[in-house]
Amino acid sequence: MLNRFITMQRRNPYPLYWLLRRVQPVLHFSRYDLWFATRYDDVKKVLADYEHFSSDFRRAFRPGEELDQSSKVSLIASDPPVHTKLRGLMTKAFTPKAVASLEGRIGELTHELLDQVDAVGQMDLVQELAYPLPVMVIAEMLGVPAADRGQFKVWSDAVVRSADDIFSTAQDAQGNREGSDAPLGAGEMGRYFAEIIKQRRAVPQNDLISGLVAAEMDGEKLSEWDLLDFCSLLLVAGNVTTTNLISNAVLLFLQHRDALEAVRENPALLPDAIEEVLRFRSPVQFMFRISSAETELGGRIVPPEQRVIALIGSANRDESQFEHANRFDISRKPNRHIAFGQGVHYCLGAPLARLEARVALNILLERLPNLARSRSGALPPTDGVILHGVKNLPVRWDARPKVVTV
Ligand code: HEM
């Protein structure tokens, strides 16, 4: 029931967010025992205050249970001090230098993808560019064959779907996850990465998995479980999110021709335009936390062990933070959006996502003259309640005939 309502809202959740911020900024949905934070300051607090709002999602499905804090907890689902150690080790391999060095390769991959459609004059932007590009980039970065990317999509979609569990009761969620909740390493994706990790231990390469295997801090290294977790996290976190950033950007540019012409004429405007896309149509609409102690939030008392949804998509449209918040303005300054989160879990891949979007959009605008939507009407929302984007975006442009040399 709630899921159906959410699906309806997913195309345009903003009027509902607006209403909630005004009348019930911290809402307790008692039927599902869920709390929603919608105002900028409250959302920031939920994301950043790990002492009161834990990221340990296991609590959501096993309320009251004593949890093993010592190991086998994912980076994204851990709290300090475990999180501090994991993040420190992972940052050693996932460096800004490694990301920056990818710029040329991202350009080549974008050109390769556009070469396949350039002369045709039309494509589904999501399926033919925005989806394959981030998968190819992360596959190369990790050092796994790009040819396996069809398989990555299957795994990635399954993980995205599992996040929908947050809207189930503890009992339903347990039912949904039966059979698919195999320990990391036992499932197909785990076995796939376990084999590559084994190969890199034997013969290190110049790739991220080799870097992760070698990373060491205070004499400690990542365990096999941590390595598997990080590979799958990157594969999923780094993919669909960036897909939605690129397709949301194109969609917004097509709806705001003045912005499109401005960035086409002056690509130096693109980085700020991308920040505005991140604010205006945030690819990740929310993250959730579990309250670990009784806490005040927006004037309400949240009891312990409650699931709290921090609505990033709403925070980024909060009028108290952003003047004319519902206006898409690529010259907005300052633009303190929280599309990449806030606090210790701030997105590790933000520089990569920004780089991919900048390079891909730049090439796209340069190569495809008179870009426009090829069909009007509502577009299907992307899968996974956590994400905001479109599943398809058919576009057309003035095709240049292919030059055939004899
Ligand atoms: C537009 C694209 C992206 C968006 C909107 C996005 C959004 C986010 C958000 C909101 C968080 C915070 C999670 C929390 O507070 O619980 C996060 C964390 C994370 N993101 Fe991203 N992300 C994007 C791209 C990427 C990419 C490209 C990668 C890597 C290749 C990546 C890897 C991660 C990781 C590893 C974390 C967990 C960090 C931690 O727990 O310390 N993300 N992301």
Summed up, what is this model?
The protein has 19 helices and 12 strands.
Descriptive tags:
three-stranded antiparallel β-sheet; 19 helices; five-stranded mixed β-sheet; 406 residues; binds protoporphyrin IX containing FE; alpha+beta; Cytochrome p450
Textual characterization of the structure:
This protein has 406 residues and is an alpha+beta fold. It has a single domain, classed as Cytochrome p450 (Orthogonal Bundle), CATH 1.10.630.10. Helices cover 48% and strands 10% of the residues. The protein is built from 19 helices and twelve strands. It has helices at residues 2-10, 14-23, 40-48, 58-61, 82-93, 96-100, 103-115, 125-130, 132-142, 149-162, 170-177, 188-202, 208-214, 224-237, 240-255, 257-265, 270-280, 312-315, 350-367; strands at residues 26-29, 34-37, 53-54, 122-124, 216-217, 220-221, 286-291, 295-297, 300-302, 307-311, 372-373, 394-396. The strands form four sheets. A five-stranded mixed β-sheet has the order 1-2-10-7-3. Strand 5 (216-217) and strand 6 (220-221) form a beta hairpin. Helix 5 packs across helix 13 and helix 15 (240-255) packs across helix 17 (270-280). The longest helix is centred in the C-terminal third of the chain and has 18 residues, at 350-367. It is globular. The model is unreliable at 173-185 (pLDDT under 50). Protoporphyrin IX containing FE (HEM) binds next to helix 14, helix 15 and helix 19.
